[in-house]
Amino acid sequence: MPSLETFIRKCEDLARQYEDQANQSKTDDDIRNLRVRSTGKKGEITALLKELGSLSADERPAAGKAVNDAKRRVEAALDRAEMGLKEAGRRKELTSSRLDITLPGRAPAAGGLHPVSRVLYELVDIFISLGFDVAEGPDIESDYYNFKALNFPDDHPARDMQDTLFIEGPGSLLLRTHTSPVQIRTMKAKSPPVKIIAPGTVYRRDDDITHSPMFHQIEGLLVDEGISFANLKAVLELFSKAFFGPEVKVRFRPSFFPFTEPSAEMDAQCVVCGGSGCRMCKQSGWLEILGSGMVHPAVLEEVGYDTERFTGFAFGLGVDRIALLKYAIDDIRILYENDPRFLKQFL
User: Fold this and answer.
1) How far is 39 from 24, CA to CA, in rounded Å?
2) Are 186 and 180 in contact, with CB atoms under 8 Å apart?
3) What is the Cβ-side half-sphere exposure of residue 340, based on CA atoms within 13 angstroms?
4) Are residues 282 and 147 in the same domain?
5) pTM for this entry
6) Which of 56, 73, 96, 60 lies closest to 14 in space, CA to CA?
7) Cis peptide before 193, with omega less than 30 degrees from 0?
8) Of 62, 96, 130, which residue constitutes the final position of a domain?
9) Are 193 and 129 in contact (CB under 8 A)?
């Protein structure tokens, strides 16, 4: 049976031996192997715990402390050696790399809202301030919600594949050409009064400097008792003053839409040329910004509303075209080219 002194000396010898080996380690594998041989489950220092049983009860506390001290010394030496190898590796990488760490850093580019998003949020805020609620619907619609329920005749040009993006052919699913289907869905789900705006993305086969096959729209609908064209005009004039300012002139002119009667379009004075005429306004001095009118009785009947009791108005405006007006942009296509030279102007 070994004496306590012999046992403690053995612990110190093993600790010193593995400390020296740790200091001489050259690789991570060397460190891992030393951990296994010294303090691992079957390591030499761990095995010393099994020898405690051969000592007397009075000697075991001191012997146990010696084993723990040896284990801590070795683990500390191995940790230092491991950190030293990592630091040496980092220094080698830095000295061998072409990266000049003394150069000032480059700050990441700041992001911002797209001009169309800016205008969309501003328009929504204006109409919410006028008491409208926001309603949404799916981008993929059926012929019923996009055309039939809105009083489009079967031979209307909008049902032609040259004007509309059908998914499964005419008469089935399509990418909505306006957000008007949201009006139908809302009226079918709710009794009057109804006062909503329907912002969203719409799709048409159209592409030039003032049109895009994918663009954004906000439509409005108000149905209640005693609603007249005067209410429609008042709401749109309030909107135009809030958005464009009192200095920009607007005008109403008669038009036709299948789902409204009577109908009117509202134009705003071209902000690019100030009304003198340019390619943006096609030399007219005016830009069409929205269509509007009183909801056609056939549409109200389709959703089950009493046309003798309720009337309403609807309007729809293109957000992208409003953005052109607001920022005096003369080509709608630049909004979708993702040119950072253009977009950074709106940060």
Assistant:
1) 18
2) no
3) 3
4) yes
5) 0.64
6) 73
7) yes
8) 96
9) no
